[in-house]
Design brief:
Order of helices and strands: HHEHEHEEEHE
Radius of gyration: 16 Å
Distance between the termini: 43 Å
Oligomer: single chain
Strand order of the largest sheet: 1-6-5-2-4-3
Number of helices: 5
CATH class: Alpha Beta
Length: 199
C-alpha cells in the first residue's frame, strides 16, 4: 500500500499541478487545519482577511481527507445552498483532475451531482462523501464525520438580536449530525459586534 502524503505536501503538490505558488499564510492555515484534525476536541474557527483563500484551502483539505479516508462523510453548511455548493464543486474538480486522487474517483458517477458526490469507497453508507446544504435546510437524519460551516453569518441573518439567536439555535442542530469525535470547522468573517463567532 502506498503511503499517503501529508496535507501540507498535498496542498503544495496541488498548487504546483495548477501552476500556482503557495503563499506562506496558506501553509499556516494548512498546519492549523491538520492540528485541529489531530486534536482531541476537533473544533476550530478560521478567520482571516477577505480573499485570503480560507474556503479554497478548506476545500483542498476536504479533498485530502477523502484521499486519506474515502469512507468519511463531509457536510458543508453555508448561509445559502449556492455558497455551500461552491465548495463542493471545488472539491469535485480537485478529485476529477488531480492525478493523486485517481484511486478515489468512482467508476460510475451515479452519485456525482453539483451539491453532493460519493467517491469510490469500500463501505456502503447512506450519506454521500460530501454534501452541500443551506443553513436553513432540513438536514435531520444525516450523519457527518466532518461539518464545515462556511460563511454561515452574513449581513442579512445577523442584523438583529433575534436573528442572531435564531442563527445560533439553527447551528446547534448541526452538532447533532456530527458523529462522536467528529470535526467541526467554522470559516467566516464577523458581520456584527455580537458575532456568533464569539461563542
Amino acid at each position: 500500500m502506498v503511503e499517503k502524503v501529508d496535507f501540507e505536501k498535498f496542498l503544495l503538490d496541488w498548487n504546483k499541478f495548477q501552476g500556482l505558488s503557495t503563499p506562506s499564510h496558506h501553509i499556516r492555515i494548512a498546519k492549523w487545519l491538520l492540528n485541529i484534525y489531530k486534536s482531541e476536541n476537533k473544533k476550530g474557527l478560521l478567520m482571516a482577511f477577505r480573499s485570503s483563500g480560507k474556503s479554497t484551502i478548506v476545500g483542498v483539505f476536504c479533498a485530502w481527507l477523502l484521499y486519506t479516508n474515502p469512507n468519511l462523510r463531509i457536510l458543508v453548511v453555508a448561509a445559502d445552498t449556492v455558497l455551500a455548493k461552491k465548495m463542493v464543486r471545488n472539491v469535485k474538480r480537485i478529485i476529477e483532475t488531480f492525478p493523486l486522487l485517481e484511486e478515489i474517483r468512482p467508476e460510475k458517477k451515479s452519485e456525482w451531482a453539483s451539491g453532493s458526490f460519493t467517491v469510490a469507497r469500500d463501505v456502503a453508507l447512506r450519506d454521500p462523501s460530501m454534501m452541500a446544504v443551506g443553513l436553513m435546510s432540513n438536514a435531520t437524519g444525516s450523519r457527518a464525520d466532518v461539518v464545515i460551516c462556511d460563511d454561515v453569518e452574513v449581513p442579512k441573518n445577523c442584523d438583529t438580536f433575534q436573528k442572531r439567536q435564531d442563527l445560533r439555535e439553527k447551528l446547534l442542530e448541526y452538532s447533532f449530525i456530527l458523529v462522536p469525535n467528529g470535526m467541526q470547522i467554522f470559516i467566516g468573517t464577523p458581520h456584527t459586534l455580537d458575532t456568533i463567532y464569539k461563542t
